[in-house]
Specification:
This protein has helices spanning 33-47, 57-96, 110-114, 123-141, 183-187, 194-199, 211-219, 224-232, 280-284, and strands at residues 2-11, 14-20, 102-108, 146-153, 160-167, 174-175, 192-193, 201-207, 239-240, 248-257, 265-266, 270-276. It is α+β, with helices and mostly antiparallel strands. Among the domains are: 26-96; 102-240, no CATH class. The strands form three sheets. Strands 10-1-2-12-11 form a five-stranded antiparallel beta sheet, with no helix packed on it. Strand 1 (2-11) and strand 2 (14-20) form a beta hairpin. The two termini are 52 Å apart.
Length: 302
């Protein structure tokens, strides 16, 4: 059996089991620079120690500098990766933990948004405009609009379109595509979000049939290339409306995992396994309970 520290959360209709891994001593994001320098110097002295036990100061200083450089390089390389992982996790939770109606693809029309004062490569401007447009529609027409959108560039590497999910669209917002629309949209059973198309460009709506698969599919749109493009355009890796439910922490502590336990994912910082919600009680039965300590008593002498 394996003895592991686990964090258990409810994400939609599944249970997420996370086993954090110990952080390498070469990458200590919580350490202050001064403390890191002391650590590097101590390691360097051991590396630079000669056979007779003496330390060459010059060699020790060179090794210490190399260690700190390696630490900073690993920190820089890891920063982007962890940001992408956090974005994927947040997107997955938002899609899996909330009721959604439609999978959506939104494409901006250059002429329509030019009339609104920006271009298709200005993601930050579109995000602010879209959010205000939705607030106005809620106020004027009703509807509990909710969204989770992930931006992606076109083949030109500059213009943006969005993939995601929507909920709360009033029925009279949804209609068929007009004559002349792409054949695959009409024959594929897609619907049109007409107010969006009138103002911003093009839209296709498809009913969500498997929410878990949909969550995984949308989260995969967050890539390193997309993240670089989003950052350069002043935007964010995802857009999520307020008030959405997130994963619920259920338990945390040490567990005795049986032989044969496997992980769905194993990364540098954590291992993850997904379980059906029905298996929560079985998992909790594996929790390690620290034996109660006997209290020492003290007898006062007369």
């Amino acid at each position: 059996m394996a003895f592991r520290y686990l964090k258990i959360s409810a994400v939609g209709d599944r249970i997420k089991v996370v086993a954090p891994k110990s952080v390498s001593r070469f990458f200590l994001p919580g350490k202050a620079d001064a403390e890191a320098a002391v650590w590097a110097a101590s390691v360097a002295r051991e590396i630079a120690r000669s056979d007779d036990g003496s330390v060459c100061p010059a060699d020790a200083a060179a090794v210490a500098e190399a260690l700190l450089t390696e630490r900073e390089v690993k920190k820089a390389l890891t920063k982007g990766t962890t940001a992408i992982s956090r974005a994927r996790r947040r997107i997955y939770e938002a899609v899996a933990c909330n009721p959604w109606d439609w999978f959506v693809t939104l494409t901006l029309d250059a002429d329509k948004i030019a009339r609104r004062g920006y271009t298709r490569d200005d993601l930050a401007a579109w995000r602010a405009d879209f959010a205000q447009w939705l607030r106005n529609r809620r106020r004027l027409h009703g509807g509990a609009y909710a969204y989770c959108l992930v931006p992606e560039t076109h083949a030109d590497g500059r213009s943006w379109h969005m993939h995601g999910v929507l909920a709360g669209l009033p029925q009279n917002d949804i209609g068929d595509f007009p004559a002349g629309a792409p054949r695959d949209l009409i024959e594929g059973g897609y619907r049109n979000w007409m107010p969006f198309s009138d103002v911003f460009g093009y839209c296709s709506l498809a009913p969500i049939r498997d929410q878990g698969r949909c969550a995984s599919y949308i989260a995969k749109y967050v890539t390193k290339d997309a993240a670089r493009g989003v950052t350069a355009s002043g935007g964010h890796m995802y857009f999520i409306s307020r008030g959405l439910a997130a994963a619920q922490r259920l338990d945390e502590g040490y567990f005795l995992l049986p032989d044969g336990w496997t992980w769905d994912y194993g990364g540098e910082f954590a291992a993850v396994r997904w379980l059906p919600a029905a298996e929560l009680d079985q998992l909790r039965a594996l929790r390690w309970q620290e034996p109660e300590k006997e209290h020492e008593t003290c007898t006062l002498l007369p």
